[in-house]
Amino acid sequence: MGKFSIFVVGLMTLAGCSQAVDHKGKTPLVEVGHEFLYKEDLQAAMPVGMRGQDSARFAEEYIHNWIKDVLLYKKAEGNIPDNVKVDELVASYRKALIMHTYQEELVNQKLGNEISDAEIEQYYNQNTGMFSANQPYVQGLFMKVPISAQHLNNVRAWYKKNTQDAIDKLEKFSIGNAVSYDYFYDRWIPVSEIAAKIPLKAIDTDANYLNRNRNVEVRDTAYCYFLHVENFLPAGQQLPLEYAKSEIKEILINLKRVEFINRMKDDLYKEASDDKDIIYY
After folding, report:
1. Is residue 225 within 8 Å of 218, Cβ to Cβ?
2. Which of 246, 243, 224, 245 is nearest to 136 (CA)?
3. Model confidence over 48-60: pLDDT tens digits?
4. Which sequence ranges are marked TM in the entry (predicted)?
5. Domain-by-domain residue ranges, the chain?
């Protein structure tokens, strides 16, 4: 049994001495002043992939910090002279949080559907300086093929051509041979996304490498990588609309947010007045 398991079992044994409590299916590890830390909460907090002694150290530190926080809270709770004021602040915060959450859900639901593609495109065209690319973008085609695949010479000829015949042949070839096939003549791809697929450091270190080298073939011990760049967008130029679209939509929603919320409040007030739910004394 590992150190972490021994540590947890020991804590569970201590927790088992507590009075009967409905833990709603959770496994208690520690109890302090009728407050419980559960095994499931500890597991949720533990970083993914942590194992062995690292997990034991993390668990021990997490539990100790949890205990200290509970003890400090209990001490503070019993020594604040005006608990009524704190309760009022908590109630006020809860009220504000509920209203904010409800408003955000309504805004995203209602206004999100009202923002049209035409509005987004109009804003994009009127504010071109706001949407500059922070890295190069490309359009073209990428294919990753096992080095043992047959007819690689044909692929070398096809991938460089933006013709329907060449594209058709590549697509048919990719079905039974390619590990990865990505056609993006019709959309812009960040160069960083391409760099993650092909083992060529020059793409990372030279921002204009793919502007000068429109056809790239690289191989390692297992694969051949073919990249054709049909169009190249340098960093600093206007970002393609497809990448600015979500940002513009959020901007337009924010511009309409205040007007929408005020209109909603006015509608609620009118409805309550009509239903005589407002009583003045």
Report:
1. yes
2. 243
3. 777 788 888 898 9
4. none
5. 3-77, 82-132+238-281, 133-233
